[in-house]
Write a structure and sequence with these properties.
- The protein has five domains: about 140 residues, Response regulator (Rossmann fold, 3-Layer(aba) Sandwich); about 100 residues, PAS domain (Beta-Lactamase); about 60 residues; about 140 residues, Heat Shock Protein 90, CATH 3.30.565.10; about 190 residues, Jelly Rolls (Sandwich).
- Strand 11 and strand 12 form a beta hairpin.
- The chain is α+β, with helices and mostly antiparallel strands.
- The longest helix has about 45 residues.
- Helix 10 runs antiparallel to helix 11 and helix 12 crosses helix 13.
- It is elongated, with a radius of gyration of 37 Å.
- The termini are far apart.
Length: about 675
């Protein structure tokens, strides 16, 4: 009671309702000597209803009031959220008053027993304060839990929810009550079965303390749990209590710090490894220059310049200092390969380039050259004196292969480990540096046999453009016609077109568009042949960090349909999504640009080539990725929205949406 009493500033109120001529003596009679509560007076029932707020802990009313009766007032106050106790001061107990007593009317005190009125009122005030205190405490706790990013649970001995407080997305307390996790979370990541098994462990007497588990592979997240047996006074288990919280950011920070620590440890090795070759060149030619061969000074200067470039590159590798628009640096690939090859001691080795001359990738400046140099050097060192090295394009990347002895399958995973080498004078640094660059860009690298039986390195999921000069001429405009959910989102999506503002507001739920999952809301039209879709994502509701809205081209509405997508995410910048081969999962790339300002998006479909572009203003466009996707002649072209939070929907607003056919016969 103390909690509620102090919450009301030690001034709970008794509201006296009745004629003015009776107010003064009743006020004196009701006013306690210890000032436990104060008394206020109004004349009518209407005035009383207006005066009642949470400070009013009891109402004392005459049965006969101006324009109404005390029992009528009691009924109306019982319908309010506050529901103060009502004591009726009545001459007689008529049937209506008797029927209301114990319901809307808490007590009846006739004038002949007025001496008992103060005690009755004080009892009602204390009881109301006690009840009000329980409500206040419960509300405070619920407010706390609902605004913290963790979940508190109480379950019975069958692991059924009795109470659920959650500040995270998911089922409400009402939805959860009486059900187990197995019933609530059937499906995704097998969460329900795993959590139900944990509950059974705890109900068996084995508590779980601060256990962290990972869920998902493509877009993993981590949750920390504490669950404890809930015992009665005899020690028997009556259920369990516990809490859980998302710790994904904490785990990722820990992983990032571990990577940084590992990178710093490797920093000195990288320097020693990459500077070894130019130092040898400089040292050898310096001796020749001392013997009078002045032309060697130019070779020494060239080696020193190369060392200077390497130091800059290694600084970036060590510190990952990147500018805004992290991946939107158009890094050429052909000329750097030629330059690196000319500076290596190649002997009788041969380089064959099958790459398009103008091909470029979107990558962080300074990181790509060390990757190329170490792959080329590895081929020369292990392929034999007359090795032929070939570099060519792949869909979403490139390959580098040689005709040397190759790499045994059992050794292919180990070659990227720091310190692993098969050469007597090797350092085990070069391919570790390659893996570091690949990981930092979310690329993939695989080792297999080349066409000649040598080693072949395939680097994929690269944002690459092989034909930057495609000249696209658009023609007839096509309208978006159909809206539907793809996959099985828990919450149905919706789409609204405003013809005056010419905007689309598309609401979509769905676990994600990633890996095996394709759940989203799609507004599209069917287009036979080549087409362009372009849109400005003006607004995106951040339900989750990977909530997204963007433009898409896909073969069908099947979840495993081939597709390409470029869009905005809530917290991870521009996202590219691809399913470019039948039977494969959707792959994802995030630009993570610092300013998150590429709001204009475009996809061109020309035959089997999809080209994704982004823009800050809708006028100047950057080509960021280009892939071959074996699409049908007729494709679905449209706008996609996904919350990436299974049980909640997000809304994206699209402006300046256009779908146009591409005129393949137009002059370039």
């Amino acid at each position: 009671m103390e909690f509620a009493y102090h919450y009301l500033n030690q001034e709970p109120t008794v509201l006296l309702v009745g004629a003015s001529d009776e107010a003064a003596p009743l006020t004196r009679a009701l006013s306690p000597d210890d000032n436990f509560y104060r008394v206020e007076h109004v004349e009518t029932g209407r005035q009383a209803r207006r005066a009642v707020d949470e400070s009013v802990c009891c109402v004392v009313a005459d049965q006969e009031l101006p324009a109404s009766r005390g029992v009528d007032l009691a009924r109306k106050l019982a319908e309010t959220a506050i529901e103060p106790p009502v004591v009726i001061n009545a001459e007689t107990l008529d049937p209506e008053l008797v029927a209301a007593t114990g319901g809307p009317v808490t007590a009846v005190v006739p004038p002949s027993h007025r001496e008992t009125l103060p005690e009755t009122v004080r009892t009602q005030v204390e009881a109301h304060l006690q009840s009000f205190e329980e409500t206040l405490k419960t509300d405070a706790i619920e407010t706390l839990f609902e605004n913290l990013e963790y979940t508190v649970m109480v379950k019975d001995d069958q692991a059924r929810f009795l109470q659920l407080f959650s500040g995270l997305t998911g089922p409400s307390d009402q939805e959860a009550r009486g059900r187990t996790d197995r019933e609530l979370y059937a499906g995704r990541f097998n969460l329900g079965e795993q959590w139900y098994a944990d509950d059974m462990q705890v109900l068996g007497g084995d508590p779980i303390h601060q256990e962290v588990k990972q869920y998902g592979e493509e877009s993993p997240f981590w949750i920390e749990y504490t669950k404890l047996p809930w015992r009665d006074e005899t020690g028997d288990i009556r259920g369990l209590v516990g809490f859980s919280q998302q710790v994904t950011d904490r785990v990722r920070l820990k992983q990032q710090l571990a990577r940084q620590s590992k990178r710093l440890e490797a920093f000195s090795d990288y320097i020693a490894h990459d500077l070894k070759s130019p130092l040898q060149v400089a040292s050898g030619h310096l001796d020749l220059a001392r013997d009078g061969q002045e032309a060697s000074f130019a070779e020494v200067q060239g080696a020193l310049d190369r060392m200077d470039r390497m130091i800059d590159d290694i600084k970036i590798l060590a510190r990952r200092e990147r500018e805004d628009q992290l991946r939107l640096h158009e890094v050429p690939i052909v000329e750097p390969i030629r330059t690196i090859w000319e500076n290596l001691e190649t002997g009788e080795a041969t380089l064959e380039l099958e790459l398009p001359q103008d091909m470029y990738i979107n990558a962080a400046k300074g990181e790509f050259r060390p990757l190329l140099e170490n792959l080329l050097r590895n081929a020369i060192d292990h392929g034999g004196s007359d090795v032929t090295v070939t570099v060519g394009p792949l869909n979403a990347g490139f390959f580098l292969e040689d005709d040397g002895p190759g790499i045994p399958p059992d050794d292919r995973d180990a070659i990227f480990e720091h310190g692993h080498t098969t050469a007597d004078d090797g350092s085990g640094i070069g391919l570790a540096m390659v893996q570091d660059v690949v990981d930092s860009h979310d690329w993939t690298i695989e080792v297999c046999d080349s066409s000649e039986g040598g080693a072949r390195f395939e680097i994929t999921n690269v944002l690459s453009v092989t034909e930057p000069d495609r000249n696209v001429q658009t023609g007839e405009s096509v309208s978006l016609t159909t809206a539907t959910d793809v996959g099985n989102p828990v919450s149905a999506g919706d789409a609204i077109y405003d013809p005056n503002a010419q905007t689309w507001s598309i609401t979509g739920a769905g676990a994600d568009i990633s890996g095996p999952e394709n759940e989203f809301h799609y507004v599209f039209t069917r287009v036979a042949g080549d087409a362009r879709i372009q849109a400005h994502v003006a607004d995106l509701e951040a339900v989750g960090p990977y909530s997204k809205g963007g433009v898409m081209v896909r073969n069908s509405l099947d979840e495993d349909s081939l597709h390409g997508f470029v869009g905005r995410t809530a917290e991870h910048g521009t996202e590219l999504l691809w399913c470019d081969r039948p039977g494969t999962k959707t792959t994802s790339q995030h630009l993570e640009e610092a300013n998150d300002d590429y709001e204009w998006l475009r996809i061109d479909r020309e035959g089997d080539v999809l080209t994704c572009s982004v823009s800050r203003d809708g006028a100047t466009w950057n080509l960021i990725d280009q892939r071959h996707v074996p699409l049908a002649k007729e494709v679905l072209v449209g706008l996609a929205t996904c919350s990436a939070v299974a049980r909640r929907a997000t809304t994206a607003t699209f402006e300046d949406v256009t779908v146009r056919r591409i005129d393949t016969d137009a002059p370039s």
